[in-house]
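Tutorial handout. Part one gives the primary structure; part two gives the three-dimensional structure as tokens.
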Amino acid sequence: MGPVMRACVTAAALALGVCGCAVGPDFKRPAAPASPGYGSAPMQGQTAATVGAAGAAQQFDAGRDIPAQWWTMFQSPALDRLVAAALKGNPNVGAAQAALRQARELYSAQWTAYIPTLQGGFSADRSKFPTDTLTSPTTAPSSVYTLYTAQLSLSYAPDVFGGTRRAVELAKAQAEVGRFQLEATYLTLTSNVVVTAVQEASLRGQIAATIRLLELQHQLTDTVQKQKGLGTASDLDVLAQQASEAQTAQTLPPLRKQLGQTRDALTALLGRLPAEEPAETFRLEDLTLPTELPVSVPSKLIEQRPDVRQAEANLHAASAADGMALANMLPQFAITGDLGSSALKLGQLFTPYTGFWDLGASLTQTLFDAGALIHRHRAADAALDQAAAQYRGAVILACQNVADTLRALQADADALKASVEAERAARTTLELSRRQLGLGTISQVALLNAETADRQAELAVVQAVANRFADTAGLFQSLGGGWWNRTEEPQYEQFGRTAR
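Part two.
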């Protein structure tokens, strides 16, 4: 075995011998929250129920898992198509997927620091030496000569104090950050598509109810004007009714503006320009309210939330960086070796007596740097403390999101029940007013007022139903969206081409 090969074996053995030794803190996953629930927010039981669309009670189930494609629980094929299109076309998905590929490649590149580096080289030097002052470095009679050299160079930095190991650990943690950033991108995108579709359906319902209300207001204005002509109504009555109609008409343009902007937002979520608006449209009656809702305990929630897992990976990266900063303060070792051949003629390379080799080892230690390494280590300590605080903040926010959504779902059900009861009362009043008008006991104005109250109650029901759908989507988002049950990775397609 040649000396360079022996050096390689020695370096590999040394690497195996010291790979378990690394200075700095060894990362340990933070303890899971011990809290069994979310305060007074419900984890079992069900919400209030009422009649009509989206009026079913929603059952909270603490042991229920979340499907990967949770949006299919709304039973809308159009919604399913748009979510699939968004996962393929939204540029944020492509950017997050590319960032993850980059992080994984950087981790693979960093891992090679465990392995000695072997380089090959070839050089040809044309030289002339001063014959009057120096002895000829060659046996050639001429003072001008050409030297050809071919060699292999080996270099290796033994990981004596674990600096390399911490660097690899840091790169791996950063790849985990990219992975959960991608999961968060998926979750945010799918949730935004669902909520935007619900918002569109709500606005369409509100616009339809407002148009019907405005028609009734216009009829009421005509009736009051006729009564004024008969002397049974005053100018003040006409002006009051015209003001009421104008106020109703005033609410219609903002609703239409919001609908247009919502359609633009939905188109952008699909990764398209405004002129490429999707053909699918949404109405509340086309959606089905999920009635079986999962609820995860806090200790399980932190495993499901991509933002919490990302914060944990950031904490791991900060821990590894702290170890790297400490290792940089300690002696640095290196092993080098060369094996090659030099000859005055190209054809004489690798012939007897042209070979050479060298083998060396070095140790360097910073003796004075004005405290730079110490300050870098202290900065790494501070970054570790920052990452720990940010992780705790992410856990608190995750639990708060779930608690807020659970309370919202309860309140939404109660609000819808109250709105339905108000609508029922307004409808009963309207029917009674119609009968009384037929008997001549009330005026046409009184009937139109009853119809106006009925349309306003209908508008309140539309908004209450939309809130239930939106907050149900919010619950799935706050619980992590079921990414752990996904069996196939969505592929981003840019301009019809699947990203590599």
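Part three, for discussion. The longest helix spans residues 163-230. The chain has a mean pLDDT of 90.
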